[in-house]
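ESCALATION

Customer reports they have been waiting on this structure for their group meeting. Please prioritize. Original submission:
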Amino acid sequence: MTRAPQWRGLSRRSVLAGALAGGAALALSACGTRQDAVRLATDDRWKQFAGTTINLVSENTAPTEAIAANLRPFTELTGIKVNILMLELTALAQKVALDLAGGESQYHVIYADPYQVLAPYSKGLVDLRELASRPDLPQLPGGWGDFIPTQLDATGRFGDHDKVFAVPYDCPTMIWQYRADLFEKHHDRMADDLGFDPTPSAERTWEEYFRIAKWFNEKTDDVQYGAGHQAKQHDSLMCDFSNVLWSYGGDYFDNGKEIGLYGTTDPGACRLNSDAAIEAAEFYQRLISISDPSSKTWDWNGLAPALQSGRVAMSPNWHEYAAANEQAMPGKFGYAPMPRGPVRSANHFGGTGIGINANTLPNERAAAWLFVLWATSPETQLSNLKSEAGGGTPTRQSVYDMPEVKAAEHRPSAMPNILTAPAVSQAWEADKIGLRPKIPMWNECDTAIYTQLSKMLAGDASPADTMRETAKRIDRITARGWAA
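Update from on-call: job pushed to the front of the queue and completed.
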């Protein structure tokens, strides 16, 4: 499953600890302005559960590491103690499954990955609308409408279109990342040789991306290869391929957008055997054949340093690598939505929300809601965004609308992840977001996909045979059904 990237080079944990611990520079109290701090400090609803201890279990993502390094504002605001356990995603899912299945509430606040937690265990999570409507608790800042709509659906809902089981917390999204300095340097030559404007955008096609990559391979020594990809036999291969699949009009199941947004336990027959899916696989095989040969050994963590070190000119990768890009080569990168295929531009979304264990006692549940409110508030998201290490990217529209955030779109050193805002704002549009099927059996399906694709890239199976065999395997997996 895709998650927020694990940075190479400087440890995110050590950088965040140095940048945020003590918090004087970045701590915006519970809110970013003195006026907001006074307002919250005089609202007794924040203090009513003082003395309570709650536990958060999370994947070791940038937002959680930023929050863990600076919990003091929340503790001072509420009197609530928060213990944070950060784990690799698979280990997290196992702990949550045991906690929920056993009727326990060892973990009150849960990083509810849409595929490994939300889809299989939504019945064990609180419908957060109930807490949001209670007059004795602080209101959700900005209301539900402040969250990016596609993110709220994809990370917060399962089955029922109305219930909300998680609040959007992080939003890693795959976009086109490229060496803007090299594209500018060679723009006119490329345009003359290729016969089109090579500037990356959602209007460029995958075939044009392919030709740009070949041009860099053959026409310049500035980089070793034009493109790099995350085509290792790993979840990253499914992520990379899916951008192409969706852009060609293929999908894993019928009603793919609906299943991606709201989820289901019965997705129907797999559609990877369609003509569109086979055509996408044929193109993907060609694309990897002219990309950096190491692509077949890279996941997202291997790919990122190749771009940052000047080895490749461009790659699709998670947008939150912008922070590391700008540390490596400030001001030399550009960001755009993915190229389009015959049908659309598709940008793989990998975000997650945080929810509350339904086994919690009433006071613990309300205290956990206060933490969710604070951790996802515009002010905390702004504080995380200002982290030198790039503590995540906002999930609220109001943060993107702040004047200082808008201004930072053009100042590389201010908030590096916000440099991607023009690209990801398009990527999250309903017609461009790429969503995996939100089904409880996705992990098994994912393994079948990247295993068969890896055989194709090794030359052991044709694209058509790969897609047909993968569809058969997925049908066997989903036919077993799911009982939470």
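Sent to customer with the following note: Residues 1-35 have pLDDT under 50 and may be disordered.
Escalation resolved.
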